[in-house]
Design a protein that fits this description.
Number of strands: 3
Structural class: alpha+beta
Strand content: 15-25%
Order of helices and strands: HEHEEH
């Protein structure tokens, strides 16, 4: 196993009320991200052609949360337009190299 990653994913938890006006909300979040990335001497490219995707997302687990207890999350997404489902089993391990495998 190689101990190098070729990408890194960051997720933000956002409050829906920020997006009552969708465009203003997106610009506000982008401004915050740019400021934080700049403070770390990084770069962030704004995407001015944002394509909205409408979907429902569910997370499934056992009654006793056995998946979560092992840092796994089973996500089910339903696309609103096509009615198609996609499932993804995710690992959220504190060690990023284990999660990357």
């Amino acid at each position: 196993m190689s101990n190098s990653l070729d990408s890194r994913e960051f997720k933000l938890i956002l409050l829906p009320k920020i997006f009552k006006n969708l465009n203003k909300g997106i610009k506000k979040i982008q401004k915050i991200i740019v400021a934080k990335v700049d403070a770390l001497d990084g770069t962030f490219e704004l995407d001015h052609n944002i394509n909205l995707e409408y979907r429902r997302t569910y997370y499934l687990d056992t009654v006793n949360y056995k998946l979560r207890s092992k840092n796994f999350f089973l996500r089910v997404r339903k696309d609103k337009e096509s009615n198609k489902y996609t499932t993804t089993l995710k690992c959220r391990h504190p060690d990023r190299y284990i999660s990357a495998e």
